[in-house]
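Me: Here is a favour to ask of a fellow structure person. Could you put it straight underneath, so I can go through it closely?

Assistant:
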Amino acid sequence: SKRICTGGSVKCVIEYVFDGSRYRCLVTDPELESAGLLYGSFTLILAGVACPRVGNPRLNPPSPSEPHADAAREFVELRLLQRELKISLHGTDKSGACVVGTVHHPRGSIGCELLKSGLGRISDWTIRMMPPGDVPPLRIAENGAKRANLGVFESYKPPTLTGASEFTGTVVEIISGDTMMILPQGEVFDDDKKLKKVSLASIRAPRAGNERTGKPDEPFAFECKDRLRLLAVGKSAKVNIHYEKEIPMSGNKTEKRQFGTVSIGKRPDIGEVLVSEGLATTQRHRDDDEKSARYDELVAAESISKATGKGVHSSKEYKKKTINDLSDPKKAKTSAGALQRAGMTKAVVDYVFNGSRFKLRVPSENCFVMFALSNVRCPQPSPNAAAVSRGQARAAEPFGDASKRHSRINVLQRQVEIQCTGVTNGGVMTGNLFVGQGAQRRDYSIELVASGLATVDQRKIDYGEAPKVLIDSQSAAQNNRLGIWSVKQVVKDEPKAKTFENAEDQLVNIQISEICSGNHFFFRVIGDDSSKVIDDSMKLFTENNGTSGAPCEIKPGKVVAALFKDGSTSSWYRAKIIEQTDKGKVKVLFVDHGNVSTVSPASQLRPLDMALGTDQIPAVAKEAVLAMTKVRSLEEEDGLDAARCLQGIAWGKDLKARLHGESDGQLLVTLFEGDAETSSINEKLVIEGLARVPNRKEMYDAGRGNSSLNKLKKELQSAQDKARKMRKGIWIYGEIPEEDEE
């Protein structure tokens, strides 16, 4: 019509009125004579108004008219029927059979008069076709009829709200692209029930998917939520509630949700920002639904966004940005080096597990990571419903919920800075976290400790690694009885550390008699008189008893005589029973040599003379491990290489061993091929990447009070750094070995 009509309008005579908002029009505009449309007719739908339908008496049975339909039709007939009027054309319906337009009466808008008298409602789909400037009078007219309960609004009641219709508060969390949690002003956040869930009225944001069901995100779901986060989180907001709805939830449950307009700063409606940027759309309401008070502004913003092809209105194919999830321990350990080298890195807190443990999104690395503050520990909060249903719930500790709430209101969905210093066995990055900018920038660990919502890790204090400012903050919180220090501390039964008998270091000459792994072996002390005594005694025992077995008690830990074939001859040796196997065999440890064998109890065991017991003559072979080293098991290639390396260096040679003490029945030793001042065999295994130093807890326990072990610890740490840089052995695939340090 705009191509053939001046200004998009045409002169017509209203020939027939179907109902208050639908007419048959006869074209009388001379401008359309050249187009062959003069005296043609069409059906007009009045833009912006929907009147009750008039019944059809010709149907069988006849359909009755809707309430107030006849009055609306009569109202229009008196003012428009058989009159020549100018009509502005806006578009057509979906079928293209009817034209949508506005009728211009000399005395005003027929649409406004219908709405003012309560003879119709605003039609959402047709009002979207009208120029934005023509919409406000219609809204004003309809609101007046609602207040006066006229016509179709005779039983209208304003929406009842369960709370205040207007309040101010702080936005704590963004749930989705159109829903947020707000803490009302004046409320203390001591319970999650204090938060109000508010959705943006008349706004529909793209829906997030569900990983469990395999449902993907709708296009721009992430962008919309992140934009709302930037606009709202942590800021003071003014909320006007317009209506409430029952929202279906899981398990056939419903939730009463408040819908309103949220204004922040100079933005009167943050929903309008999302719509204007093409990240959200306006909700298509039914004609009798409650709407946002700024619905027309939202529709106008959406029209502009559509015209410019922004966001969801773009004709280009949407390409979702894939973010790497490093919550898997192997992935986390592999990528930990890059984050540590990056130094201070910006991140966004995506989720709060407890006061000091978070899920972060690191934009510069395009990844999600699990992150924990390295020097502090927060109490355990109450378990969520999912953990309870899975039976994995852990009991809440005092001030655990308070600590979590503090983090939710201060760091959740905020931009922070992190400094990664390590990674745990479970793939959790550890380090420091800083909140705020400029003069407001602060170390979040200090804030938690000073508030009494976290404690400094005692192990860090013992290692001397805890910063002094943290320890001072904890002391101040203790003195002021803040948070967890306000209640009596419960002393838990902590598992006891390994016991180390740290005698004075001894240097002895030894010879290895059995290699069990890359750092576990048995040795004999060269020149030990008991070695010659027991060897001679067992030879005599063999001569006296022959090589036939004899009945004896099969009990784990009992020392007996076991037959061992060495080359062409068999002899009896002292052995300790380890266990009885399923096949009736017995596994024994030859205590004077260190090797393990599986024997037949009937033919290869016999009782040992009392004079030859280990209480009379101690076991000659001493069990030992290379101090401050850990190797992989023999089932793995690196573990087998470590054992072969130890065999190549030490087997059949006279060695020097520095004995540092005992741990769980095993001697801690440092082996040397020659002079004790040269590089140790421990160091050689580490520098070849076949062994590594243990974790700090084990190193601390082992080195406590032993200067030689502390010196060895430094030497091995330096050797490990070299092996890591040269990518040797277990370090070949990266800086972090893919194994659990348990």
Remarks:
- The chain has 19 helices and 35 strands.
- Confidence is low (pLDDT under 50) at residues 490-503.
- The two ends are 79 Å apart (CA to CA).
